[in-house]
Design brief:
Elements lengths: L10 H7 L40 H14 L3 E5 L2 H9 L7 E5 L4 H11 L5 E5 L4 H7 L4 E7 L11 H10 L3 E5 L4 H4 L9 E5 L13 E5 L2 H14 L5 H12 L1 H20 L4 E5 L9 H7 L6 E6 L2 H10 L4 E2 L9 E3 L11 H7 L5 E5 L5 H12 L3
Parallel strand pairs: 2-3, 2-4, 4-5, 5-6, 10-11
Antiparallel strand pairs: 1-7, 6-7, 8-9, 9-12, 11-12
Helix pairs in contact: 2-9, 3-4, 12-14
Bound molecules: pyridoxal-5'-phosphate.
């Protein structure tokens, strides 16, 4: 559904107000949950604009328009998970099409490409998308799209979206960006020439580790029409209640992102000086490889950190000893979470590829929450202690 009357406001205001801001029928400030599968037609050939909730539902529509508004795109789509959103995008392609993918990416995305879509004759190449030369070298006659995560997961490499989008346009390819880590609060890929933005709304947008969701935003009418067809035909849509939970989460996106980033910066600096830690990947550290590209295309660095510990045997100790930080998959919520990528988020990626990108047995990934930063640091300190 195309949004009308989008007010050009600051992103901190836009997140609070959503698209319609309130229920136009009752004035309810919390947008209502339209828990209805179907809608009464006033008469033959007549519709209220809603027919059946797989096609459209007012609560889902408010979320779809809100995310489109935040990403500065025209059309938003909400799905039952991030993976459902990515799968929907892949149905835009045909057997024989080639997609160039960030080699350092969410393991579930890799699994979807390799174990599901490859069977249908699609081809995927995994390369370092922070390296323009590698990207150019990967383009073949049948290349149809770039699928990029930036910062990447879990190594936090930064891709230059403007440069990749220029290349994509010259080759008539699409640029698809997974913007889960930074959210539109810090990065709006459509403004940098990206064609399709996707999100796991489960992470920062929802923000409370309580709801699965996936979102897509595009600006192009033809792409929007094709995505709408897949969305309503395949039916992996987000429920009205879950749409409402994500809308509620988005209201505090601005304050959460600011606080999480502030905490992450302090923690990254602290970790770097810890004797059990050998390497810290956080985009906000000025000597990070992607720092200057990040400065040029994003207004923040986010709150995801990965780091290598000196010895593999410390890993088990850390994961057992953390008390404030929770040892669990996922990221982006108010609670700080720690994961062990080789066994969790990236277990679907073959060892040889993991070794190449740096996802080693010594790597931990930390999603920094909104707790008091001293408490997170104290917790890491006692968990990493090897005396
Ligand atoms: C979690 C995640 C996904 C998958 O989303 P789900 O909501 O878990 O299906 C995709 N991309 C990134 C970067 C993620 O972190």
């Amino acid at each position: 559904m195309e949004i009308k009357n989008v007010l050009k406001r600051n992103i901190s205001t836009k997140v609070v107000h959503g698209c319609k801001c309130y229920d136009p029928h009752t004035g309810a400030v919390s947008f209502p949950i339209y828990q209805s599968a179907t809608f009464r037609h006033p008469g033959l050939y007549q519709t209220t604009g809603y027919d059946y909730s797989r096609l459209q539902n007012p609560t889902r529509e408010e979320l779809e328009n809100t995310i489109a508004n935040l990403e500065n795109g025209k059309f938003g789509f909400a799905f039952s998970s991030g993976m459902a959103a990515i799968s929907t995008i892949l149905s835009l392609f045909s057997p024989g099409d080639h997609i160039i993918v960030s080699d350092d990416l969410y393991g579930g995305t890799y699994r979807l490409f390799e174990e599901i879509y490859k069977k249908y004759g699609m081809e995927f190449s995994y390369i370092d998308t922070s390296n323009m030369q590698d990207i150019e070298n990967a383009v073949k006659d049948n290349s149809k799209a770039f699928f990029v995560e930036t910062p990447s997961n879990p190594m936090m490499k930064v891709a230059d979206l403007k440069k990749i989008s220029t290349l994509a346009k010259s080759k008539e390819m699409l640029l698809i960006v997974d913007n889960t880590f930074l959210t539109p609060y810090f990065q709006r890929p459509l403004e940098l020439g990206t064609d399709i933005v996707i999100h796991s709304g489960t992470k920062y947008l929802g923000g409370h580790n309580d709801t699965l969701a996936g979102l897509i935003v595009v600006d192009d009418d033809i792409l929007a029409e094709r995505l709408k067809l897949v969305q309503k035909s395949e039916g992996a849509v987000l429920s009205p209640f879950d749409s409402w939970l994500i809308l509620r989460g988005i209201k505090t996106l601005g304050v959460r992102m600011e606080k999480q980033q502030q905490n992450a910066m302090e923690i990254a600096k602290w970790l770097r000086n810890h004797k059990s830690v050998i390497n810290v990947n956080y985009v906000g550290l000025p000597d990070h490889e992607g720092y200057s590209v990040s400065k040029s295309q994003s207004s923040g660095f986010g709150a995801m950190i990965s780091f290598d510990v000196k010895n593999t045997h410390i890993i088990e100790q850390v994961l057992e000893k953390v008390q404030v930080i929770i040892f669990a998959e996922s990221l982006g919520g108010v609670e700080s979470l720690i994961t062990y990528p080789v066994l969790q988020t990236h277990s679907a990626i073959p060892k040889e590829m993991r070794d190449r990108i740096g996802v080693t047995d010594n790597l931990l990934r930390l999603s920094v929450g909104i707790e008091a930063v001293e408490d997170i640091i104290d917790d890491l300190d006692q968990a990493l202690d090897i005396s």
